[in-house]
Structure prediction request, 248 residues.
Amino acid sequence: MRFDVITLLPELVESVVQVGVTGRASQRELIELHCWNPRDFTKDVHRTVDDRPYGGGPGMVMKADCLLETIRAVRAATPEKTKLVYLSPQGKKLEQSMFREVSHDPKIESLILLCGRYEGIDERVIQLEVDEEWSLGDYVLSGGELGAMVVIDAITRLLPSVLGHKDSAEQDSFSENLLDCGHFTRPESIENLDVPAVLKSGDHKAITRWRRKQSLGRTYQRRNDLIERNTLSVEDSKLLNEYLKENN
Ligand SMILES: C[S@@+](CC[C@H](N)C(=O)[O-])C[C@H]1O[C@@H](n2cnc3c(N)ncnc32)[C@H](O)[C@@H]1O
Prediction:
């Protein structure tokens, strides 16, 4: 998967492929990151990328001309099967299902991620070029770069052969509208808290059943909105009832 990020702060975005899962995916050429700085597409000596807003008011607006030039250059360098996303607090709130869709959609070979700064970008760039607007949540950041890095990380870990264990991503929270269960590692006991006995039993069927029960129970307690999106199977309803009895 190829990511092209349009940003005034390429050094910030590039750090995402220097470490961790995304770093390894980049080294193994499972993902490609290219940053494009609109400043390189300006025509004046000061390399101006922003200007005062029409109608007055505080702050500056990212200019349409250098952004459109940048987008044209990116499109010329990327596969045709691409989607241009503007990171914006006014966009659709990011969810795992959106990342899953992109990572599995054969119609999308690359993503162009447009990061705003200042008061945002000239509205006409959105009208002319943007396919979708995506938001990190109901709060305002100084720029879209952190959003672009979130998108790159979340999609990369869903790509085939990026994670070590085939099921890792499938067992994460939100993969079935459920939260993940709790995890434990050595030592067996710490500050009088023991690892649940079933996890040491070697009985894989019992372990799977216990994990599913914890997942359902946690989701019910912490994110009931997710449970309401699911139609629980008879077995899941039974497990959830068991969990609620055991934890009340
Ligand atoms: C200071 S913000 C501009 C906010 C804009 N004036 C508004 O109220 O909608 C500058 C840039 O940060 C990015 N940004 C801010 N909050 C974001 C969020 N919650 N999700 C994604 N991007 C965000 C956008 O790219 C935006 O253009």
